[in-house]
Amino acid sequence: MDRTDLKKIYNNSLAGPLIFAGVLFLLPFVVQSNYILSIMIMIGFYALLCNGLTLLMGYAGQISLGHAAFYGIGAYMSAYLSAKMGLSPWLGMLAGMILAAIIAYIVGIPIFKLKGHYLALATLGFGVIVYTAFKELKDFTGGLNGFFGIPTISLFGFEFNNDFRFYYLIWLFVILGILFSRNIIHSRIGRALRSIEGSEVASDAVGVNIMKYKLQVFMLSAMFASLSGSLYAHYITFINPNLFDVMTSIYLLIMVVIGGASSIWGSVIGAAVFVLLGEILKSVVPLVFPNAGGEFEIVFFGLLLVVTLIYMPNGLSPQLEKLIARFRRNKELVPAPVAAGRDGVESGGDQS
Amino acid sequence: MSGQQTILKVEGLTKQFGGVAAVHDVSFEVKEGEIFAVIGPNGAGKTTLFNMITGVLPVTTGKVYFKDRELTGLKPYQIAALGVTRTFQNLEVFSNMTVIENVMTGAHLRMNTGILRAGFRFPSVVREEVNIMEKAMECLKLVGIEHLAYERAVTLPYGNQRLLEIARAYVSEPELIFLDEPLAGLNSEETRKWINVILKMRENGMTFVFVEHDIEAVMSISDRIVVLDNGIKIGEGTPEEIYENPKVVAAYLGEEEEDAVSC
Ligand SMILES: Nc1ncnc2c1ncn2[C@@H]1O[C@H](COP(=O)(O)OP(=O)(O)OP(=O)(O)O)[C@@H](O)[C@H]1O
Ligand SMILES: [Mg+2]
Q: Regarding beta strands B20-31 and B176-180, do their DSSP bridges make them parallel or antiparallel, or are they unpaired?
């Protein structure tokens, strides 16, 4: 009785994540292509990162244009501790997350006094500063020459040293991340975050300490980004500052918006659309414009962002949810329950 | 009017916007269990007064006490934690949530799940959620909109959104609730319903301070009334006393004359 009660508001069922995990598990056996696997791994890094960013942007309604900084902090922390200090990559990962959380806390206190465009600019500035630090702190990061020789990650002697193995590692993290975020959304904390997006004055009036929750969700999203960065470093084994520049932050924003900032699954959808479109562009554009460079991507994704914001301000995930709901209805011949307040929430509210 | 204990004391509150005093040197006291009304023409400073008391706006000068605790200088969420909450003149329901989630958010202070416990969804989290959901449902029943629990809050008609805001305030079991024009936009049927809700809640020991233009409702439900005009308190007393206060009558007649001219 009690369980069914909560289900009326929150879809807590494990069916979705389990089906998703099942499909992911089987994928490498069905499509035996290293190329596809490497693409899936890239999607995984971004999905993990966007997961935290979605909590921040979609649920709490706070924009960040500096999250590549935390991605980089995780990557460099893990790289330095494992390659230079000989520590376990797992420790590096943990240290990165802790450092990212501390930095998010320190930066968050002044930054969250700002709202809307000012917040966007301040986070952008933060991203630029950290990127510059990656370039200039050559003793730690190797500067623009890059950081070489990052060890791969292993668990009880099992090394994640090829795409097939790493694929399972990264997607395990993605799924755990989604479950964690979903649990948060379906709780007092999730409602507090959403209340900030819904109406700050009302949120304040019912006793939500807005600053505290903005800081918490900012720290949490920084930790997600850092974790993703660490895993990335141990996968690719070579990093340089340009991977974590402002453009990356903007691409992350684009992913979150395309996927739909109002659904935790949007992070996976957005990451997948971004990576797949990027791959298609890479192979198609040279056929049409032989001399075109990377700017093409920037223009294309910029346009995509604008078009999405105009025609689908809530991103792709609500569309997908509608499709799934219709599919269910056909199957069960019962009216679909109210969709509102499930994994997805409208994020129509303005950011100011 | 259970005790005659003072629950709210407002001392010389003043708010300057630039050179203009929107509220000037206003003082009054509210007793425990009272239904207390603040009335006055448009722009009299009623909302500004509420905003200062509930911490939304800083005061220019003056002090506010809740029981013996000074509220001046506290943030709204800190004031809420002491047991004082409010509703808004321009509806502020959480448009991105369902009706019941709105009320559950109102119970924020009655819950203690933190971000980590929530993320790992400890059994205690589920228990707390179920409890709060039941409690929220009771509050929705009390205001009579439980059948709308799973609708999105923004889809509710105006009157029901007002009731929702009251349920959201009530669920946290505050001792003192401020209501800014709770009847605006309600029809007479809804107004009657609202009056019953407030009377029922008062029986449960709550104190209300409300701003309202519907004079009939104010007179029928209030124990005492304060009248503001141009930011200044021009009268205070029981409904009977207010009716007979020449200053109040003048202020309201003046307003009606202006209205008549402008129409
Ligand atoms: N933030 C602000 N900045 C400048 N002036 C303000 C501000 N808020 C209110 N005022 C002014 O203060 C005066 C009182 O406004 P207030 O909203 O408190 O009136 P009110 O009694 O609630 O009116 P109504 O019945 O129309 O709601 C008005 O003249 C208003 O223009
Ligand atoms: Mg007002």
A: unpaired
B173 vs A342: which has the higher pLDDT: B173
Host H or E run for residue B168: helix B158-170
Structure tokens belonging to residue A72: 């980089």
Cβ distance A340 to B150 less than 8 Å, yes or no, reads yes
Contact A207 B109 (CB under 8 A): yes
Atom of ligand 1 nearest to the CA of B89: 27
Tens digits of residue pLDDT in B201-217 = 999 889 999 999 998 89
Exposed / middle / buried, residue A221 (Cβ in 10 Å: 0-12, 13-18, 19+): buried
- Closest-CA distance, B53 to chain A, in angstroms, reads 12
What value does the CA radius of gyration of chain B take, rounded to a whole number of Å?
19
H-run or E-run covering B37 = strand B35-39
Query: Helix A266-288 to helix A295-311 angle, to the nearest 10 degrees?
Result: 130
Pocket test for ligand 1, best of B14, B38, B46 (most atoms within 8 A of CB): B46
What residue ranges define each of the domains in chain B, with the CATH number in brackets? Answer: 1-83+174-263 (3.40.50.300), 92-171 (no CATH)
Chain A CB contacts of B166 under 8 Å are none
Q: Give CA–CA dist B209/B200, Å, rounded.
A: 15
ipTM score here? 0.90
Of A352, A248, A257, residue with least CA distance to A309:
A257
N- to C-terminal Cα separation, chain B: 41
Domain boundaries, chain A: 16-245
Q: What is the pLDDT of residues B103-123, one digit of tens each?
A: 999 999 999 999 999 999 999
